[in-house]
């Protein structure tokens, strides 16, 4: 799942980004209120982790603009301001949850999982691909193939999810790198090829199609 983190303190943001990516999230990191607002307004992030004390525009202002524009991403406020009045204001502005610094990574991940379940609760949590041979449970983040659950890593799951949510569409390495590893990833795009091989070994060679010059896709 794509996630936007808006946090100006690198001492907090950098380890948080690492932990989120290790958990399988495709993270974009914005460091100012205006930068975060611009990214969130695209409507491409189901989850927004939003600090309150931000340069340029505070987190409450960002949330106000997002909700006023109809952006319905789940918002988790992440801040050192833990007073009751701040929590109430954040939730009244359309926030979905509030986590006070310092926080533990397991607590953050558990909160995000709860928000993911809430966001997807209105729709079917299962996505099928490869003529029904493959199934993703988008809440539990599990994969089955030919009726058997297959153990995959968070990154492998995120790669499959990116493909399965848009079946028949060809994705270039760069597009998958952006969706799964995030725009700030500084490694080689060939890492996508490596993870496709991992997925094929665990499921089947035909689970992910490839074509030179077009990229990767999964069948409906």
Please tell me about this protein's structure.
- Pfam families: Response_reg, Trans_reg_C.
- The protein is α/β, with parallel strands linked by helices and 220 residues long.
- Helix content is 40%, strand content 21%.
- The protein contains 8 helices and 11 strands.
- The protein has helices spanning 10-22, 33-40, 59-68, 84-92, 105-120, 154-164, 173-181, 191-202; strands at 2-6, 26-30, 47-51, 74-79, 97-100, 126-129, 134-137, 142-145, 148-150, 209-211, 215-217.
- The strands form 3 sheets. It has a 5-stranded parallel β-sheet with strand order 2-1-3-4-5, with helices on both faces.
- Helix 6 packs across helix 7 (173-181) and helix 6 (154-164) crosses helix 8 (191-202).
- It is elongated.
- Mean pLDDT is 86; it is low at 120-124.
Strand order of the largest sheet: 2-1-3-4-5
- Describe the biggest sheet? 5 strands, parallel
What string, H for helix and E for strand, traces the elements in order? EHEHEHEHEHEEEEHHHEE
Average pLDDT level: 86
**Estimated radius of gyration:** 18 Å
- Stretches where pLDDT falls below 50 for ≥5 residues? 120-124
Content-based structural category: alpha/beta
Which oligomerization state do the chains in this entry correspond to? single chain
Secondary structure layout plus pairing:
Elements: E1 2-6, H1 10-22, E2 26-30, H2 33-40, E3 47-51, H3 59-68, E4 74-79, H4 84-92, E5 97-100, H5 105-120, E6 126-129, E7 134-137, E8 142-145, E9 148-150, H6 154-164, H7 173-181, H8 191-202, E10 209-211, E11 215-217
Parallel strand pairs: 1-2, 1-3, 3-4, 4-5
Antiparallel strand pairs: 6-7, 7-8, 8-9, 10-11
Keywords: DNA-binding, Phosphoprotein, Transcription, Transcription regulation, Two-component regulatory system
Pfam families: Response_reg (PF00072), Trans_reg_C (PF00486)
Domain OmpR/PhoB-type: 124-220
């Amino acid at each position: 799942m794509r996630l936007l983190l808006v946090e100006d303190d690198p001492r907090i943001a950098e380890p948080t980004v690492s932990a989120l990516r290790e958990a399988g999230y495709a993270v974009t990191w914005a460091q100012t209120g205006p930068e975060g607002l611009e990214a969130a307004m695209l409507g491409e992030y189901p989850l927004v982790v939003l600090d309150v004390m931000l340069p340029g525009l505070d987190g409450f202002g960002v949330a106000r603009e997002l909700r006023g524009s109809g952006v319905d991403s789940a918002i988790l406020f992440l801040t050192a301001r833990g007073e009751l009045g701040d929590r109430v204001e954040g939730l009244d502005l359309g926030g979905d949850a509030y986590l006070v610094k310092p926080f533990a990574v397991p607590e953050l991940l558990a909160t995000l999982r709860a928000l993911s379940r809430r966001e997807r609760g209105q729709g079917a949590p299962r996505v099928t691909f490869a003529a029904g041979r493959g199934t993703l449970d988008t809440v539990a983040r599990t994969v089955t193939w030919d009726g058997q659950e297959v153990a995959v890593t968070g990154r492998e799951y995120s790669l499959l999810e990116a493909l399965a949510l848009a079946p028949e569409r060809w994705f270039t390495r760069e597009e998958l790198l952006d969706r799964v590893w995030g725009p700030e990833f500084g490694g080689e795009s060939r890492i996508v090829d490596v993870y496709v091989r991992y997925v094929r070994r665990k499921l089947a060679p035909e689970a992910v199609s490839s074509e030179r010059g077009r990229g990767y896709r999964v069948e409906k």
